[in-house]
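Typical record was shown:
=====
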Amino acid sequence: MQDSKTLINQAAQEIARSSTTSPTEAGPARAERAKPTDAHIDALNEVFALLRINYHNQYYKAYSDTQVLNQIKRLWLESLARFSAETLLRGVKRVIENSEFLPTLHTMIHHCESESSEGLPDAHSAYIQACRAPSPKASAKWQHPAVYYAGRDSDWFFLSRNTENIAFPVFQRHYKQYVERVIGGEVLSPPATVERVIGGEVLSPPATPLLPETIEVPLSSEENRARLKALREELGL
C-alpha cells in the first residue's frame, strides 16, 4: 500500500500537470485558477461518497488515514474547481461506469473534460467545417461557436489559401484555446450576435429588415380611373 506522503505528492504532481498554461497567439493565458465554491465542496464530498460505495475495498486501502483523505480532498478540490459542480458529478458517474479501479485525480480530470466538451467536434472535424463554411461566416450553421471563433482567429483568407499541412496547425492552436475556455465553464456567444470591430469602430451585424405592416400593390388602370373620377366628384370638378 502506498504511504500517505506518496499519495499526497502524487496528487500534487497531477494538479501541476493539469494546470500548466502558457500564452497563445489568441491572447494571454488566464492568470488565476478558478476558486472553489460551496457547491464544489458539496459535489466533491458526494464524489468521494460514490467512490467509497463503488470501490469499497480499494477505497479503504488507499484512504485508510482520515488526515490523508482530507488532504487529498483539498488537492482534488483545488484542481477540479475549474469544472462546474454538476460536471464533477457527471464525471464521477462516468468513471464508475467505465473503470473497475479507483480513479486517480488525472483520470477524474479526463472524465470531467469529456463531460464538459460534449458537443465540441474534434480539432480536425472542426477545421474541415471551418474551411467549408459558406459566407457570411457568422450566419453559417456551426456545430459549436468555438469552431467559428477558431476560424475567425486563424483568418478565413489564410485558411482558404493554404494547404492543410500549413493551415491546420494554426487552426488547431486557436481551437484548443477555445475548447479549454468552454471546458472551464465559459459560454461562447453565438457567432451571429457577435459585433465586428473594423478600424477601431464597433459595428453590429446588419439587422434583418422588418417586413412592412402593409404591402402596397400597384392599382390597375381601371382602379386608377375610378379613383380619379371619385376624387373629381368629391371636389366638384
Remarks:
- Residues 15-31, 195-212 have pLDDT under 50 and may be disordered.
- Residues 223 and 229 are 10 Å apart (CA to CA).
- Residues 4-116 form one domain.
